[in-house]
Write a structure and sequence with these properties.
The structure is a single chain. The protein is α+β, with helices and mostly antiparallel strands and 494 residues long. It has 13 helices and 20 strands. The strands form three sheets. It has a twelve-stranded mixed β-sheet with strand order 2-1-5-3-4-10-11-12-6-7-8-9. A hairpin with a 6-residue loop joins strand 13 and strand 14. It starts with 46 loop residues before the first helix and ends in a 6-residue tail after the last strand.
């Protein structure tokens, strides 16, 4: 007799059990009804079912490849221990704003970092990743803001927000993000480095008044001297520690806090209940504020900050971030500079000559394009078309203060610039440029010569047919400027 199939209850398909035996079966195979006393046996099932049951019982034994699945009929086939554990991360939606106040909602994991959010937006918008993108936290009600460090968790930052406040996350460039690793003495005062000390204005707790005190930075926190400029431990009083608080820059200057200068910064506890818990400070100039904030940032994050700085370059073996140059494609490497001006063509092997030829070729191409577009007018009419307005570095009708704010947001690195309309003279333009942690403004004056319009920065010694040509020239040459134009301020859109 063949053995029963795995999972088929013994006795299934039998009409009755031997006398004296106990009924067999399972919940799925009910016992046959008892024979009534003195009566006829119950009618047998139809022949069709009988043949079917006989054919099932006649199948040879098949080994069960999954014996662990054979369990009691009263239990579930798959136990909880056999089910895969849920590994999916909880996701949340965040809203990120750009400079023009357009926003984009992103569904992100709860453990996403600021660097990951920046990488996600770079990929979605097809931006160039030059390691200067940052996520910026702005507290609207208090007028404070800070650049979120790359390793910080975005959800933890948002968990410290008060529900009633309309705080925002901005996606923007910050060229000064890690610039102090390349040029430390530019950001840390050379007169006091490595020790950071000096005068700062501090707002007294519970009062509207400010007091000028002598502060000293220590690893354990920030202290001020109760006796002039004394550094003796008995004269030092504790002001603030950094581990459980974040440092913010004042974005509104004197408006909200009533500070004596526009160079304010403060410490906000992570679980702060409001402005009453802020430790507010104010420096005399931008260089002093940058020095203090950079030193405190280095003390708070330490080696983690350097790891954030090195992370984009870890994939390039043997490369130092101080001398990394952009990678060129195979097609670019196969290009050579050629000179076709003579009877015979020649390869230009001198890099300086090749660069000047490339610039001249580009300018000649632009002049030809201007003539084609201006076939029905004069060169002056062409200049009035304002082709510079399509450039990312040009900002139409913004004030001097707005220009300074934009440059400050992009970081006070040498060469950060923008071009704008002049408010004092409607026919001129202004080049706003960052150099030496200061923002300087240079007037671009239009000149007319033989019916042609030119633009100049140096009283006509160097003339340009349009603003695009002027900007490209000063990107290659310092000229009368304190430094070359390097990074332009742009209002990106998400």
């Amino acid at each position: 007799m063949a053995a029963p199939l795995p999972g088929v209850p013994p006795g299934a398909g039998r009409a009755e059990e031997p006398a004296g035996g106990s009924p067999r079966g399972t919940a799925g195979s009910p016992c046959p009804p008892p024979r009534p006393p003195g009566g006829d046996p119950p009618p047998s099932p139809p022949d069709r079912r009988k043949k079917k049951d006989d054919s099932i019982l006649g199948i040879p034994s098949i080994p069960n490849p999954f014996p662990e699945l054979c369990c009691s009929p009263f239990a579930s086939v798959l136990s909880a221990s056999l089910l895969p554990k849920a590994t999916s991360r909880k996701k949340q939606v965040i809203k990120v704003y750009s400079e023009d106040d357009t926003s984009r909602a992103l569904e992100v994991p709860s453990d996403i970092t600021a660097r990951d959010v920046c990488q996600l937006l770079i990929l979605k918008n097809h931006y160039i990743d030059d390691h200067s993108w940052t996520l910026f936290e702005q507290l609207t009600q208090t007028g404070l803001g800070r650049a979120i460090e790359d390793h910080e968790l975005v959800m933890e930052v948002q968990s410290n927000w008060v529900m009633e406040e309309e705080n925002k996350l901005y996606f923007r460039k910050n060229y000064a993000k890690y610039e102090f690793f390349k040029n430390p003495l530019m950001f840390l005062s050379s007169s006091t480095y490595p020790e950071i000390h000096g005068f700062l204005h501090a707002k007294e707790q519970g009062k509207k008044s400010w007091k000028k005190l002598y502060f000293l930075l220590r690893r354990s926190g920030l202290y001020f001297s109760t006796k002039g400029t004394s550094k003796e431990p008995r004269h030092l009083q504790f002001f603030c520690e950094f581990s459980n608080s974040d440092m913010y820059m004042s974005l509104t200057g004197k408006k909200i806090s009533g500070a004596p200068t526009n160079y304010g910064f403060c410490f906000k506890p992570n679980k702060s209940g409001g402005t009453r818990d802020l430790k507010q400070l104010c420096a005399d100039d931008e260089q002093s504020r940058t020095c203090w904030m950079t030193a405190i940032r280095l003390l708070k994050y330490g080696m983690q900050l350097y790891q954030n700085y090195m992370q984009p370059y870890q994939g390039r073996s043997g490369c130092s971030p101080l001398n990394v140059t952009p990678m060129r494609s195979v097609s670019e490497n196969s290009l050579v500079a050629m000179d076709f001006s003579g009877h015979k063509s020649r390869i230009i092997e001198n890099p300086t000559e090749a660069l000047s030829v490339a610039v001249e070729e580009g300018l000649a191409w632009r002049r030809r394009g201007c003539l084609r577009l201006n076939s029905h007018g004069s060169p002056i009419a062409m200049s009035n078309m304002a082709i510079h307005r399509s450039q990312s570095w040009f900002h139409h009708k913004i004030s001097r203060e707005e220009a300074q704010r934009l440059i400050l947001q992009h970081g006070l690195v040498d060469g950060v610039f923008l071009v704008r309309d002049s408010q004092s003279n409607p026919k001129t333009f202004v080049l706003s440029l960052s150099h030496g942690l200061k923002i300087k403004h240079f007037q671009i004056v239009p000149l007319e010569d033989d019916g042609k319009l030119f633009y100049t920065l140096d009283d006509g010694h160097t003339r340009f047919t349009d603003l695009i040509q002027l900007v490209e020239f000063y990107q290659l040459n310092k000229g009368v400027l304190p430094c070359k134009l390097k990074h332009y301020c742009a209002r990106i859109a998400l």
